[in-house]
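Q: For a teaching handout, I want to show students what a protein-ligand complex looks like in token form. Below are the inputs, and the small molecule is heme C. Please produce the holo structure.
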Amino acid sequence: MNLDSALHTLTHKLALGGMLFALCLPGVVAAQTTSATGTGPVHDRIQEARTNPELEKQLLGKGKRVAAVCANCHGDKGHSSSADLPVLAGQNPDYLVEQVRKYIDGRRRNMFMEGMLKALNRDETAGMVLYYAIQTADPQPNQPPALVEQGRAYYAKVCVACHGVDGRGTAHMPRLAGQHPGYVQASLEHFRKRDGVRSSPEMEMVARQMSDADMRAVAAYVAALP
Ligand code: HEC
Ligand code: HEC
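A: Here is the structure, written as tokens, with heme C included.
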């Protein structure tokens, strides 16, 4: 399936209205062991672009075209407007490359995302990653101040070691600053339940210690970070 046919399928699904949300639900996809794209080549291509401005420009152009398809859910320039859909703006490149690989090899399960990402070739994937990485993320407005304060303390104790003082992560650690609190909470729940929707030994260990209230508080805190 190429990107055009993925878009065609998507448009068809959008026309089916209610079907869309069914597709967004974590799928019961059998784990796959083969990887069509693999991150090696995408990662290498991104590195190549860092020292080759002409290639970078080319990839960014492709990335922008890809992002136009993703905008249906992830919003203009990666600023998704729904609490269930992750913000991609400002997300760290190596983290995104790894998530693409996880969806494709089954370590992260969402049937729809798997299909979309499989439809991208190496340069489209590299371009998409570069394009989102350079967009500016905005804090999510109107987080309840008491919750934010509670979350600040929890974050400083537990999360700061990996996601950084400013919540912006590192090349391989995801940015949490400005992420939708609903998506953060849902992700933490998947890690805690170990339901196979997401898998990460680090996050499973962290989430196992968290109550629902901790998750709510820390999600509000990171959402409000610039
Ligand atoms: C129909 C809605 C929809 C469309 C269209 C869509 N996505 Fe997604 N995307 C989602 C949902 C829902 C999730 C969260 C699923 C999960 O929890 O794994 C997600 C997650 C992601 C993630 C993981 C983000 C993170 O912070 O870990 C990436 C990367 C991503 N999408 C990229 C894309 C790209 C690239 C496109 C376009 C080619 C695209 N998506 C199109 C719904 C969509
Ligand atoms: C030991 C390092 C470590 C610690 C501590 C840690 N994380 Fe993570 N976190 C990770 C890694 C690695 C990932 C990527 C997991 C993956 O590939 O799915 C991640 C992913 C996440 C994600 C998913 C991001 C996305 O865009 O989908 C959220 C949400 C998250 N962490 C929240 C937290 C919170 C909140 C805390 C503190 C309570 C925390 N993490 C503490 C390492 C850590």
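A: Two things your students might notice: Residues 11-38 have pLDDT under 50 and may be disordered. The pocket of heme C (ligand 2) is lined by residues 86, 98, 158-159, 161-163, 173-174, 176, 184, 187-188, 198, 200, 202-203, 206, 218 (CB under 6 Å).
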